[in-house]
Amino acid sequence: xAHAGTLDIKxxxxxxxxxxxxxxxxxxxxxxxxxxxxxxxxGTSGCGKSTLLRLxxxxxxxxKGEILxxxxxxxxxxxDRGIVFQEHRLFPWLNVEQNIAVxxxxxxxxxxxxxxxxxxxxxxxxxxxxxxxxxxxxSGGMSQRVAIARALVNRPDVLLLDEPxxxxxxxxxxxxxxxxxxxxxxxxxxxxxxxxxxxEAVYLGDRVVVMQPLPGRIxxxxxxxxxxxxxxxxxxxxxxxxxxxxxxxxxxxxxLSDR
Amino acid sequence: xxxxxSTTTCRIDLRGWVLPxxxxxxxxxxxxxxxxxxxxxxxxxxxxxxxxxxxxxAAFWQGTxxxxxxxVSGFIVGALGGVALGSLLGASRWADRLIGPSFHTMRQIxxxxxxxxxxxxxxxxxxxxxxxxxxxxxxxxxxxxxxGVRGVTRAHLEVAKVYRFTRVQLLFRxxxxxxxxxIATGLTxxxxxxxxxxxxxxxxxANWGNGLGNIIIKGRSTFNVELIIVGMLAIGxxxxxxxxxxxxxEAHALRRQxxxx
Lengths: 259, 261
Hints:
Chain A has helices spanning 49-57, 96-101, 111-124, 140-152, 170-187, 198-204, 235-249, 252-256; strands at residues 7-18, 21-33, 38-42, 64-69, 72-73, 81-84, 158-162, 190-195, 207-212, 217-223. By secondary structure, chain A is an alpha/beta fold.
């Protein structure tokens, strides 16, 4: 699967209409993401980062510009793009195994292959032994693991993560970030993570895209040339984290002149 | 995952028996002391006696069977129609706009007000009774299904979109399972309505046919108060049994997923 999952976003703009007035949410976003790359997108609320992700998954349309996946324009939702939402969005009437199987429901391949893929992904997210558990019996962190498995089970080229750990407690979050990195490396998919947690963005991203609001634009892209798995307490990690953090303290004017 | 250990009390709570037993004792005392006209308020012993002879009569059991069959057939027709109608109204904004207002207006017409029309159209036979019972079931079931389908969250609909559910998958793998608790509530309510309608139909569309309602009619026409009471008790008992069965089925279907305690 060489070069699968290369994403090209070219001059992407999106606006909503509110009371007959145009409200621009994204303005001139251009970003190229390599196959297998992990890109974090950080920004304050209202910077359009979630809208960007919803455009990439295909739940929103009506944009200007281009979104190309492996050279093809994306049209609507597709099984080659998976997503993990902030809430797990599992079906409460299905158990862990059945919820993950939703991901392969419309994927090509026989029942045997699908069953195997589901079993592999249960193991991948560390939920062996919980196959028969229902969502109400799972903790928030475990539910999010199931959601990750569901998103990955049909082996999408791109995995989109919309603040997936935003609702979890700090300890669970840290642990799941570590787990996500391991899973991402095992699967080799392109990953795009939207978050408002700078440390999370730096810990996971090969690059960190900093966005600014009203309208949503890319302010700066910060490279994270650190070996994985990363050490959050290392000085180099702190330097990059501070660098990204400084973008949120700097005045908008000086940042604009950067671009 | 914690398995909450619920200490199930095996002891039966007897408090529910206090009121009926007190009333029974009062009833017995009043009639035994001769303070009331025992032609109208008959002694409990006589009722027991009539009950014994009624229960040993095959016609009673046949009547019960007829009533239950009527009830269940009408319920099934009404329930299927109700789930279909409610789901349609809940799922399609267009259908809701088109049919919804009429549906909600029709609902305001007491079901018993339908009877003169139904008997004019279908006479006093089995068909009229069946239509009446089905109609009685339809409303609560449709309302339950409507609420349930309406309650399907946008978040889950997006999941279905992401995994490219077909229309059939959307219905059977998302909408109906998501609406199941409300549909179950509607069905339970529908069952109560169906049984009330069954007896009502036997009463008001009376054609000297077979059924539990006819026992009461027979009791009244022969001034047999004991028989009327026996008939009432039988109707109450059958209704209770039907509801117990429905509640069991509902709990069994939903408990597994922790959607009902």
